[in-house]
C-alpha cells in the first residue's frame, strides 16, 4: 500500500500508531507559517490533537504524486476559528518512510 493510502486509512481510523509507522525516526516537519521545524514526536502530538478533534477537518485530500523518493499531496483544511486553507505538502521519502515534510498554504475565502 502506498504511504498516502496508509496515512489516509490511519487518519480515518484515528490510528496514530499506523500513521507513525509511515514516518522515519529522523522525521522533520517544516511549518509553512514560520519555517520552524518539529521532530517526529512533536509532529505526532500535533497530528494526534488534530486527528482527535472535530474542529479540524480536511476535505478533498488527494495525492498528486508519489514514488520511492517523494510524495506531494493537497487538501483543504478547516480550522476551529472557521478559516479554511488550501494546503500543499511535499514529503521526502527515505527507506520507505517520510523523513521530511514541508507545507505551503493559501487562505481561502
Which key terms come to mind for this protein?
about 110 residues
Care to describe what's here?
With 109 residues, the protein is an alpha+beta fold. It has one domain: Nuclear Transport Factor 2, Chain: A (Roll), CATH 3.10.450.50. Helices cover 26% and strands 49% of the residues. It is built from three helices and six strands. Strands 2-1-6-5-4-3 form a six-stranded mixed beta sheet, covered by helices on one side. A hairpin with a 5-residue loop joins strand 4 and strand 5. The chain is globular, with a radius of gyration of 13 Å. The model has no long low-confidence stretch (mean pLDDT 95).
**What is the CATH architecture descriptor?**
Roll
**Any idea how many domains?**
1
Rounded to the nearest angstrom, the radius of gyration is 13 Å
Average residue-wise pLDDT:
95
SSE pattern, N- to C-terminal: HHEEHEEEE
The N- to C-terminal Cα distance equals: 35 Å
General shape: globular
Walk across the major sheet and give the strand order: 2-1-6-5-4-3
What is the CATH domain class?
Answer: Alpha Beta
The description of the largest β-sheet is:
6 strands, mixed
Helical content (DSSP H or I, runs of 4+): 25-40%
Secondary structure class reads alpha+beta
Q: Residue ranges: pLDDT <50 for 5 or more in a row?
A: none
* Record field, number of beta strands: 6
Beta-strand fraction estimate: over 45%
CATH topology: Nuclear Transport Factor 2, Chain: A
Number of helices in the DSSP assignment = 3
Amino acid at each position: 500500500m502506498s504511504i498516502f493510502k496508509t496515512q489516509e486509512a490511519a487518519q480515518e481510523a484515528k490510528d496514530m500508531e499506523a500513521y507513525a509507522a509511515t514516518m522515519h525516526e529522523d522525521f522533520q516537519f517544516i511549518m509553512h507559517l514560520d519555517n520552524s521545524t518539529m521532530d517526529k514526536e512533536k509532529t505526532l502530538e500535533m497530528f494526534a490533537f488534530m486527528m482527535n478533534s472535530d474542529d479540524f477537518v480536511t476535505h478533498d485530500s488527494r495525492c498528486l504524486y508519489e514514488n520511492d523518493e517523494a510524495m506531494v499531496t493537497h487538501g483543504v483544511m478547516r480550522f476551529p476559528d472557521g478559516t479554511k486553507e488550501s494546503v500543499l505538502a511535499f514529503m521526502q521519502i527515505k527507506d520507505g518512510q517520510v523523513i521530511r515534510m514541508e507545507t505551503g498554504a493559501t487562505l481561502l475565502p
